[in-house]
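Human: Can I borrow your eye for a moment on a structure tokenisation matter? Separate attempts, laid side by side, tell us more than any discussion would. Could you pick a protein and write out its sequence and tokenised fold? No explanation is needed for now; the record alone will do.

Assistant:
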Amino acid sequence: MSDFNELRDRAYNVRRAIPEHLQIFQSWRQLSDDYLASRDDALIDLAYGDDARHRLDLFPGNSSASVHKTPLVIVIHGGYWQALDKADNRHVCRSLCEAGWTVALLNYRLCPSVEISDIIADVEMATHWLVDNQYSLDLDCNRIAVIGHSAGAHLAAMLACRSAQKQTILSGRIGHLCLVSGVFDLQYLIGTQMNERLGLTVEKSNALSPTHSTPPEGLSVDSTVGAFETEGFFEQQTYLAQVWADKTDWTQASVANTDHLSIWSQIGTPSSVMAERVLSSLRALRFD
């Protein structure tokens, strides 16, 4: 790479910072397979578009018999817009479903086959599809929560912004974001190894960054990073807070004893610090 920036790459390159990442991803897949095997009621690979990756899983929430429609939380996996799959992330649904949330776990197309702008459109299309089909799926889509990890946190934030930019079926529906170890100002990825497949320029990054977009009114946001993460993710949380903190109901934290991957792993364990934080932040959206 002619424009390689060593300092930026160290700040944002998760695989470089966590040499055992492949083993962690393998453990995620095993945990996800085990959870899926326990959920005969899960709806797998529902098509929200024409591409093979336009698919989502729906895990119904545990609820009392008196509750017909269950509140919806959308989960968007990470992988720097170029890797991983919903099948690697089904394990995070356990805590959410046990708390009564129905979880839509999204897949989307990946770079370099498409650009980040196309992936943002995929997430918006998937959410449109869920709202369009909420009655047949017994979902409550009045105020949707969205949880995203890493690149997924960026996609969650952009989904909220897109819902505010024009009058569509999504207007006023995105009520809460849980942003886990997100990347929100994409210009800082220019010069990293990841950008070989992303193709970001300053112009593109500004157009695709939540830090250059306006969130919808009434949005609540909880942003977290792992205490052991590389400095880039702390900086990214700060960049978004500088723009969004006075426009949203904003909270943020550094979660002790976690890094970029273990903070996400915790969400699938109901008794974990991270799962309890996420569920606490979601309670205001519940309609029992």
